[in-house]
Amino acid sequence: MAEPPVVVTRRGELRIRRGHPWVFRTDVKRAEGVAPGALVRVLGPEGRPLGFALFSSRSEIRLRMVERGESLPEDFLRDRLAAALRFRETVAPGARACRLVHGEGDGLPALVVDRYGDYVAVQTLSEGMEQRKDHVVALLVELLAPRGIIERNDPRVRTLEGLEQRVGLLHGEVPETVEVEVEGLLLRADLWRGQKTGLFLDQRENHRMVESYARGRVLDAFTYQGGFALHAARVADTVLAADVSGEALAHVAGNAARNSLANVTTREANAFDLLRELEHGGERFDTVILDPPAFAKNKDAAEKARRGYKEINLRALKILRPGGTLVTCSCSYHVHEADFEEVLADAAADAGAAVTVVEKRRQARDHPVLLGVPETFYLKCFVLRKAG
What pLDDT score does 119 carry? Predict the structure, then answer.
């Protein structure tokens, strides 16, 4: 390996030995002469070999470990990609839409690969992965033979690495929209402009789960493209799918028609205002679903996010009929599961409702959580029952 080794502090060494793949700028003791994005050998402060990492020259996360130990396979990228694909055959067998590579959870930090039928969306979110993008694309063509590969490198996190935000074609062709089966529903995904890489694949299993609980009159207050609403409509009487985006609601209506679900109506509204309006109007629902966007983008916003989560869950419990089910989610990493549960308990107390926890869930299994790395556990989903 031509690059000089990077030496970390004792605290950095302890972090690596405990299994965390990130070493921050303050824990890098020496990195002279290391090129941006380089694959480097990592040493402890006393020269002990700790493994190999991708180096970032501008990010606060200076090192992203790809291997602990004294050797690294020559083509670790191919080995890791192949292993990730084999794992998806276990947790998402036959899935036409799923996450194929989930960064650190698959030993490929800062790399995201999503499948949408015959098409693939890729994100390279660090200097190191950006430099290896062409190699990743070539391997995906070899291993998957997709009709097209698109890069969805528009997340803001790339700017922290000194990388530009961009969306573009990397291989073959990718149409404006793609129709794909997701958990038994036919959905249209916009791989060029849709949120995430087109759909919220991390909620895929939770969307299907709601069919076990939805009944009667259902409200899905942050519906986006209707993942929860459409599954609920398969078993409930009526579903009101609300979102602040009219464009998103047009997708919901189209997906409902595509799946012959005539019991879904849409409403363009701010969810906070809508929940308040429904409560004041005496409206009642048998099932309420809350899956808002992240309220806390950073640690400083956590307390404000807690207040937001309490507000919507308090209102939801007030419009929920006794015996009804509340499915409520948070994708704010900085609001941890215990914090979210405490917020829900406070909301239930203020609503004067006795509430039991039926299930605690998280992101789909194709978005693996790495033990000891709390950053990989971000999506919390509680299924609650209001006593009646």
Answer: 98
Q: Are 203 and 291 in contact (CB under 8 A)?
A: yes
Catalytic annotation present for 381: no
Are 105 and 367 spatial neighbours (Cβ–Cβ below 8 Å)? yes
pLDDT number for residue 97: 97
CATH number of the 76-178 domain:
3.30.750.80
Beta bridge partners of 382: 328, 360
Q: Which of 352, 320, 335, 60 is nearest to 214 (CA)?
A: 320
What is the architecture of the domain spanning 200-386? Answer: 3-Layer(aba) Sandwich (3.40)
CA 143 from chain centre, in angstroms, equals: 24
Give SS3 for 339.
Answer: helix
C-alpha distance from residue 267 to each of 221, 324, 368 (Å): 9, 22, 34
CA distance 162 to 91: 35
Report how far residue 28's alpha carbon sits from residue 31's, in angstroms, rounded to the nearest whole number: 7
Domain 6-68 listed as CATH 2.30.42.10? no
Sign of the torsion formed by the C-alpha atoms of 228, 229, 232 and 234 = negative
Beta-bridge partners for 23: 63
Do residues 70 and 15 make contact, with C-beta atoms less than 8 angstroms apart?
Answer: no
Q: How many helices (H) and strands (E) does the chain have?
A: 10, 20
User: Where in the chain are the domains?
Assistant: 6-68, 76-178, 200-386
Residue 327 corresponds to which tokens in the numbers above?
A: 């499915």
pTM for the whole structure: 0.94
Integer Cα distance of 359 and 357 in angstroms: 6
Tell which phi-psi region holds residue 150, choosing left (phi > 0), alpha (psi between -120 and 50) or beta: beta
* Adjacent-strand bridge partners of 114: 99, 121
The predicted pLDDT at position 1 comes to 55
pLDDT of residue 267: 97
What letter represents residue 249's amino acid?
L
Q: What is the Cα–Cα distance from 118 to 97, expressed in whole angstroms? A: 9
* Closest C-alpha among 11, 49, 52, 57 to residue 33: 57
> Catalytic pick from 98, 329, 331, 381?
331
Distance CA 142, CA 58 (A): 32
pLDDT less than 50: residues of the chain: none
